[in-house]
Amino acid sequence: xxxxxxxxxxxxxxxxxxxxxxxxxxxxxxxxxxxxxxxxxxxxxxxxxxxxxxxxxxxxxxxxxxxxxxxxxxxxxxxxxxxxxxxxxxxxxxxxxxxxxxxxxxxxxxxxxxxxxxxxxxxxxxxxxxxxxxxxxxxxxxxxxxxxxxxxxxxxxxxxxxxxxxxxxxxxxxxxxxxxxxxxxxxxxxxxxxxxxxxxxxxxxxxxxxxxxxxxxxxxxxxxxxxxxxxxxxxxxxxxxxxxxxxxxxxxxxxxxxxxxxxxxxxxxxxxxxxxxxxxxxxxxxxxxxxxxxxxxxxxxxxxxxxxxxxxxxxxxxxxxxxxxxxxxxxxxxxxxxxxxxxxxxxxxxxxxxxxxxxxxxxxxxxxxxxxxxxxxxxxxxxxxxxxxxxxxxxxxxxxxxxxxxxxxxxxxxxxxxxxxxxxxxxxxxxxxxxxxxxx
Length: 440
Hints:
Elements: E1 14-15, H1 17-27, E2 34-37, E3 45-46, E4 50-51, E5 61-62, E6 66-69, H2 71-74, E7 83-91, E8 105-109, E9 121-124, E10 153-156, E11 166-167, E12 178-180, H3 188-196, E13 201-205, E14 209-215, E15 219-220, E16 231-232, H4 235-246, E17 249-256, H5 260-270, E18 276-280, H6 290-295, E19 307-313, E20 315-316, E21 320-326, E22 331-336, H7 340-359, E23 368-373, E24 379-380, E25 386-394, E26 397-400, H8 409-413, E27 417-421, E28 427-428, E29 433-438
Parallel strand pairs: 1-19, 7-8, 14-17, 14-18, 15-16, 18-22, 20-25, 23-26
Antiparallel strand pairs: 2-13, 3-13, 4-12, 5-11, 6-8, 6-9, 7-10, 19-21, 21-22, 23-29, 24-28, 25-26, 25-27, 27-29
């Protein structure tokens, strides 16, 4: 992996959102395909088109418990004058040796069982007397309790058309059809289809392994007591959950104190299980912003092409950002700001597309729509910055949630969209058509 850190950089340059994202996406590459067992492939992206080797179902079979019959033998059957047929045997699911149904005959058949030779339709058992010689029944007697049920006679009280209650061979998919396209994310229904056509393994791009860590000596693990000046670490939980939501296998690392050596050592320890590293905090200009201190010169220690560059972006929230690679395998690293809203917005804009790119997906971005701004007053935005405001979207309208502060976690929890205010816009009046990024 090449890195932006190999190019001459201007620390005072103000990058646009699009420039930063483009640099990430031209650097990150999809993971190499591997062959996995079906259940291990869940959530992964299919590499090749899958062709059906055998039709589904592979043979005509019954969709009901009932009797396999010839259409002519039950034509005109009714409650007053039922059709009386000789029962010549049972056909169970998985049966290989099938009885033949001749004129005036029927075979008791179970759901999923192959249609026996000579039969043209299935009449549900509820349309018959079940061989009891009385009125319609609710179901069949178990074979083990009444083996004689497969013999004798049955009265059918309703006619049936050809093919009634028969699942025709190939009615689901036919041999030679394309079952799944390359690029499909394998969920439970897709796993079921692969199993149904006999695939035990499949070639996929694996789910990327994403390691998330927060930095800051003030951070405390939820569930522990807070000391003076301390806050709970919410960022690592939010970003780990967001990485899993994006399709990754995500690992959360406990908050790292503001010590550059400890942070560098922790990151190096995590490289063995990471396809992507995400840090949050420590990327601004403060005296204790240790991520910059720990990683800014890492390219000098690694192989050529490594290193992390720290930038200023023309966006709000999320101005300070870092991107590059570390370690012998040049593992991508995205360093996000520490304020909760800044961190989450940065994840949605930059980390999520990187994860989806690693997965080999073409659709890597959240959906974006146009909506009418519903607000009590105009929205203000700093000149030259692309602003992302939290909002709720419904019925073609979007309403701001909370204020502009990048620390407002509660407002973020109630938002399902981001309202985008372009760099050249300083005020957005209520009723204006705006771009909205949908988060749900």
